[in-house]
Structure to design on (500 residues):
């Protein structure tokens, strides 16, 4: 096939070999820039290129990209300030993953379909690692590629079919299922909490132990189960602890066998594996601790509305106070009968509802208050929460306060789905520091965020949008610079920020 796309080679082995040979004397950055340019063209023009020609180029380019990737990864760790090099590495891997997924749909033989689907899934995982090394949110395209590969292999019964002759760099996880399990394991291990060298070790660990991750079969008695919502491709993090109600298109999986093997070997991987089971350990180990009652509202919309109505200068306003913990019924949390309700008195009316005429055309959110008890655990900042009246959701934020009327921000990490009835048991993280709302009144969407300020610095919880590190966000109250992703959830991005 001729080359009408301004590529530096023709679609034949000789021409591609001659082009690749000159990289022997080129530097890593120069080679990366040229390969990036070629992959960008191939991605843009993929529908116009005949399948055999595109496959020929991709078979020759993939080993070269994987070889280059190892050097780019070292540069990411040694020189993290070189942002353009980091962006280039992610772009190269993302283009390559896209082209393999495209070919997996187009090729006719099962052998080729298995190979391209497996390579697409594996390279997507490597790209996830590169984004973690940058402490930046992955592109939503990577979740799309994972979803497409999984559905293609599932519907074609190819999940467990191994690649016939895999490349040496891709020979450890030779099925689509194993490649997917490696990616899922890496996601739930929360790589952003590690240093860059540890992220490398974590990815290698997940690669070597992917066979010890199991998809959950119906009726399984495994307690610690995780969920992948493969329909939520535009989600911040579609891989999380299993919610009480799984989404429509989901995969449930667990790492129980991995945990048992690691405990038996008694090796040094405890830090890497602890995340897979510590929710269960926290739930089990908290029963002898004393609890503290709180009132809470859950979800970003409720938290923002609560701040608008009740919070002034980092504290709850006594002029228009919300419910007190003393007035909410905690007896159900102690598994005793309810006390007789007190006679209702006059309801306090918000002053803004009387005097602010501009509120007439605005639909106000009806605040839903819940009762919650926080029980200390062996992990600092983590509590077992026993909640009633309002249900918490995995990956969401909530605001809690007690008789001291100091609002505290909380993050929901896990919900014990085994419990039924009025009490909901969860593992939550209570964030130390002052919490406040930042807003952009002049923006088209009135962007709002939660700012957490503490002794170590500041954190920002964003609910929408895609930002690169170094972005300056100008809010009405403060200006902040995004420095690092701290963790992802299905509903928010948590950044470490610097206040200007």
């Amino acid at each position: 096939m001729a080359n009408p796309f301004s590529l530096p080679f023709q679609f034949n082995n000789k021409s591609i070999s001659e082009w690749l040979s000159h990289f022997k004397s080129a530097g890593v950055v120069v080679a990366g820039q040229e390969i990036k340019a070629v992959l960008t063209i191939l991605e843009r023009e993929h529908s116009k290129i005949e399948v055999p020609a595109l496959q020929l180029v991709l078979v020759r380019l993939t080993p070269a990209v994987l070889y280059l990737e190892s050097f780019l990864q070292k540069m990411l760790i040694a020189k993290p300030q070189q942002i353009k090099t980091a962006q280039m590495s992610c772009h190269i891997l993302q283009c390559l993953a896209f082209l393999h997924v495209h070919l997996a749909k187009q090729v006719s033989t099962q052998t080729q379909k298995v190979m391209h689907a497996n390579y697409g899934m594996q390279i997507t995982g490597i790209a996830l690692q590169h984004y973690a090394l940058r402490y930046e949110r992955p592109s939503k395209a990577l979740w799309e590629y994972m979803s497409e590969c999984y559905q293609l292999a599932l519907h074609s019964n190819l999940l467990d079919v191994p690649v016939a002759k895999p490349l040496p760099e891709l020979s450890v996880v030779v099925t689509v299922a194993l490649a997917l399990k490696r990616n899922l394991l890496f996601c739930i291990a929360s790589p952003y909490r590690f240093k860059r060298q540890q992220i490398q070790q974590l990815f290698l660990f997940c690669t070597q132990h992917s066979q010890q991750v199991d998809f959950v079969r119906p009726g399984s008695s495994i307690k610690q189960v995780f969920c992948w919502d493969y329909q939520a491709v535009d989600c911040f993090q579609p891989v999380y602890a299993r919610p009480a109600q799984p989404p429509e298109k989901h995969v449930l999986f667990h790492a129980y066998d991995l945990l048992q093997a690691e405990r038996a070997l008694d090796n040094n991987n405890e830090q890497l594996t602890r995340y897979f089971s510590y929710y269960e350990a926290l739930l089990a180990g908290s029963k002898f601790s004393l609890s503290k009652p709180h009132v809470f509202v859950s979800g970003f919309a409720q938290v923002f509305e609560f701040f608008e109505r009740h919070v002034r200068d980092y504290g709850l306003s006594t002029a228009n106070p919300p419910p007190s913990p003393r007035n909410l019924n905690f007896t159900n949390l102690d598994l005793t009968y309810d006390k007789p309700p007190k006679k209702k008195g006059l309801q306090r009316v918000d002053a803004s509802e009387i005097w602010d005429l501009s509120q007439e055309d605005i639909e106000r959110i009806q605040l839903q208050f819940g009762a919650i008890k926080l029980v200390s655990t062996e992990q600092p900042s983590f509590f077992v929460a026993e909640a009633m009246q309002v249900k918490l959701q995995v990956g969401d934020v909530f605001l809690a306060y007690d008789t001291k009327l100091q609002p505290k921000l909380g993050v929901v990490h896990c919900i014990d789905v085994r419990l039924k009835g009025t009490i909901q048991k969860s593992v939550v993280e209570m964030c130390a520091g002052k919490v406040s709302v930042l807003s952009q009144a002049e923006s088209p969407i009135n962007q709002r965020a939660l700012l957490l300020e503490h002794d170590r610095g500041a954190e920002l919880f964003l609910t929408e949008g895609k930002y690169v590190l170094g972005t300056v966000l100008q809010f009405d109250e403060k200006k902040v610079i995004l420095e690092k992703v701290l963790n992802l959830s299905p509903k928010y991005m948590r950044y470490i920020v610097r206040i200007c």
